[in-house]
Automatic annotation (TrEMBL):
Entry's EC annotation: 3.4.25.1
Alphabetical UniProt keywords: Autocatalytic cleavage, Cytoplasm, Hydrolase, Protease, Proteasome, Threonine protease, Zymogen
Keyword Cytoplasm: yes
GO BP annotation list: proteasomal protein catabolic process
Annotated CDD domains: proteasome_protease_HslV (cd01906)
Any one GO molecular function term: threonine-type endopeptidase activity
Taxonomic classification: Bacteria, Bacillati, Actinomycetota, Actinomycetes, Propionibacteriales
Catalytic function, reaction form: Cleavage of peptide bonds with very broad specificity
Keyword Protease belongs to the record: yes
Organism whose genome encodes this protein: Cutibacterium acnes (strain DSM 16379 / KPA171202) (Propionibacterium acnes)
SUPFAM superfamilies assigned: N-terminal nucleophile aminohydrolases (Ntn hydrolases) (SSF56235)
Top-level class of the enzyme under EC nomenclature: hydrolase
InterPro entries: Ntn_hydrolases_N, Proteasome_sua/b, Proteasome_suB-type, PSB_actinobac
Name recorded for this polypeptide: Proteasome subunit beta
GO cellular component terms attached to this protein's record: cytoplasm; proteasome core complex
């Protein structure tokens, strides 16, 4: 029978058997608060994702960008689902998959990092954050088998290495450090083509943001589940963009994203007109 939080006396909390994993602790005292490990996938809308999230390293940090909208097919018109969530002042997670489950995973990850730092009495490293997120992704392996994946990208500023870093994950929790860029979601294949072709070492922040927007635009155009939530100048709908550098996590204002998006749209329109003229 699970213990109540009040049953955890000081002797337990101070004992050498106290786990440094908040998820493990929560599983013992209040398992009902953990994110579900199985869902009823008889609801077909849950199996339709249609979101794209990407991260790009630049000279001085990392850009993380995501398209807009809900993962549920019946709510594809919803454009206020935020898929880039800050975990602290140096890391962000971009998530593709069911928005509710992704949000629960990230909140648990935030608590996991806070708990570990309090237990150890020092700040957890970027590598430590990556390992902790890996264990949480692994705990959702059953959902992966059911076809409902919550796939994150972890990006942040490594204070020890003094550089931006990106970690991607597979459905089993396996982590890979990406040294240039990474992309997850239903449009990842299309966005990756743009990133592989146009990415270059030494790009600055503005160049990386422009590349991220172009890659998302390509993904949205080619990936039919995403087609209803792409950039829309008339309605003021633009990708969500965050930058992480030595100064911390900065959410790029919509106005700046709008300028870059309009520039991209004008460029694509001009190229299309030239091709038609020929």
């Amino acid at each position: 029978m699970p213990l109540s939080l009040s049953d955890l006396d000081g002797d337990y909390l101070m004992s050498s058997t106290t786990t440094d994993s908040f998820a493990v602790l929560l599983r013992r005292v209040a398992p009902e608060l953990l994110p579900p490990t199985t869902v009823d996938t008889s609801v077909p809308e849950l199996l339709r994702h249609g979101r794209t999230v990407l991260a790009i390293r630049y000279n001085g940090g990392v850009v993380v960008a995501a398209d807009l909208g809900s993962a549920l097919a019946r709510r594809l018109g919803q454009t206020d689902v935020d898929r880039i969530l800050g975990t602290d002042d140096r890391c962000v997670i971009g998530v593709a998959g069911a928005a509710g489950l992704a949000g629960e995973m990230i909140r648990l990850f935030q608590a996991e990092v806070d708990h570990l730092e309090k237990i150890q009495g020092q700040r957890i490293s970027m590598d430590g954050c990556a390992v902790r997120l890996s264990s949480l992704v692994r705990s959702h392996g059953t959902m992966m088998a059911q076809g409902l994946a919550v796939t994150p990208l972890l990006a942040g500023w490594d204070e020890l290495a003094h550089r931006g870093r990106i970690f991607s994950y597979d459905g089993t929790g396996g982590q890979t450090e990406e040294h240039s860029h990474a992309c997850v979601g239903s449009g990842a294949l299309f966005a990756s083509d743009v990133l592989n072709e146009d990415y270059r070492t030494g790009m600055d922040r503005d160049e990386s943001v422009a590349l991220a927007i172009r890659a998302l635009d390509t993904a949205i155009s080619d990936d039919s589940p995403s087609s209803l939530s792409g950039p829309d100048l008339s309605r003021g709908l633009y990708p969500t963009v965050a930058c992480v550098d030595s100064h911390g996590v900065t959410r790029m204002p919509t106005e700046e994203v709008a300028v870059l998006t309009k520039r991209l749209v004008d460029q694509v329109t001009a190229e299309s007109d030239r091709e038609e003229a020929q």
